[in-house]
Amino acid sequence: MLYELKNCRDGSSATYNTTVDITEKDNVLTFIFTAEHTEFYCPHSGYNKIHSEGDACEVLIGSDPERKVYYEIEINPNNDLMVAEMVNHGFDENNEPILDIHFVDDCFVKSDATRTDNAYIATVSFDKNCILSGEGEIYFNAYRLETDGGEMDKHLFALIPTMLPKFHAPEYFVFLKDYIK
User: Which of 51, 123, 125, 144 shows its CA 20 to 30 Å from the CA of 40?
Assistant: First the structure.
């Protein structure tokens, strides 16, 4: 199903049109992001670099009933990936997430990124058994970062806005079964 992302901070319409199409076939989940109006800013390249310092799309997904352990899958306009198991310990006194990041050495994600004149289409797909982080139902949220070519105050877009200037807010994860028809 195709969904529009919204402003992550306040739930208003996104400054730049961004959609995500979510499908499942034969146990493989596919997320196709269409990210319009981009500068294709990618300060890092290669596998398991932190691509969220530039333009990127992300999926946070897992099945830990306590929503503390989940996977982060990032893709940038150059088709560079980051795949990591995240352990979320809540927020510090500055309301920043406290995270342990465990990079996944053996990449289980297939990806593609195609550029157009002012957009990119980023696709990530993976067997859903690879992201099981517990015995609960699969939950997720989908995001986009746009830097306008390196701006420090990034545009943050989310399928389910967190109402915060950050993505790692597990209380805003939703059940996957409700978004795949």
Answer: 125
In sequence order, what are the beta bridge partners of 30? Answer: 23, 125
pTM of the model: 0.95
CA distance 153 to 15: 13
Residue 156, classed as helix, strand or coil, is strand
Instruction: Give the pLDDT confidence of 47-82 residue by residue, as tens digits.
Output: 998 878 899 999 999 999 999 999 999 999 999 999
pLDDT tens digits, 119-151 = 999 999 999 999 999 999 999 999 999 998 887
C-alpha of 152 from chain center? 19
Token digits of residue 168:
């790692």
Sign of CA dihedral 14, 81, 52, 76: negative
Whole-number Å distance between alpha carbons of 154 and 54: 9
